[in-house]
Request: fold
Amino acid sequence: KAGVTQTPRYLIKTRGQQVTLSCSPISGHRSVSWYQQTPGQGLQFLFEYFSETQRNKGNFPGRFSGRQFSNSRSEMNVSTLELGDSALYLCASSGNKNTEAFFGQGTRLTVV
Amino acid sequence: QQQVKQSPQSLIVQKGGISIINCAYENTAFDYFPWYQQFPGKGPALLIAIRPDVSEKKEGRFTISFNKSAKQFSLHIMDSQPGDSATYFCAASGQAGTALIFGKGTTLSVSS
Reply:
């Protein structure tokens, strides 16, 4: 069974640009969550999508947005990039309600 | 309160020894407590998880101890091996698989 797939693995963007990250969950999983990992703040929850609807949202500015498609694949978008957005962005998928979350390898975003 | 406090920040253990990592939480609505292991360049991998209706859960060399009244839980790694050297994160949520609140992580080094 394939795991969670995130693309691309690495990205370099310039301040002010926008970026879109992609996540394909484990087959059959309908929930996709996104996390930001930085050395200073650790792992922080961004948002969760279930059946194409945002179900939970963390404490991040509106520049961070996401969506989920009918095949459960999800995208995360960050607009007007700032240097502080440099981080490892992780996607996690889980099955029906109350099952464990499995993480992808992440997308390393560097903003210069 | 949404915080999960994890200690120690780093830990050095000899091969064959016991590694113990502790976490404390404030939000009594949390009902799912997983531990994740992360190697450099990889996403976090679920190790073991517990719900507050049990005080201990064991899977191989890994044991979670849970103290609901003290709002604390800990990970014990028995017979620690060099291959266990990684960063360990505790987490908590009100619903398994989503909106995980992570501790800051513990870097474990097992010396041979």
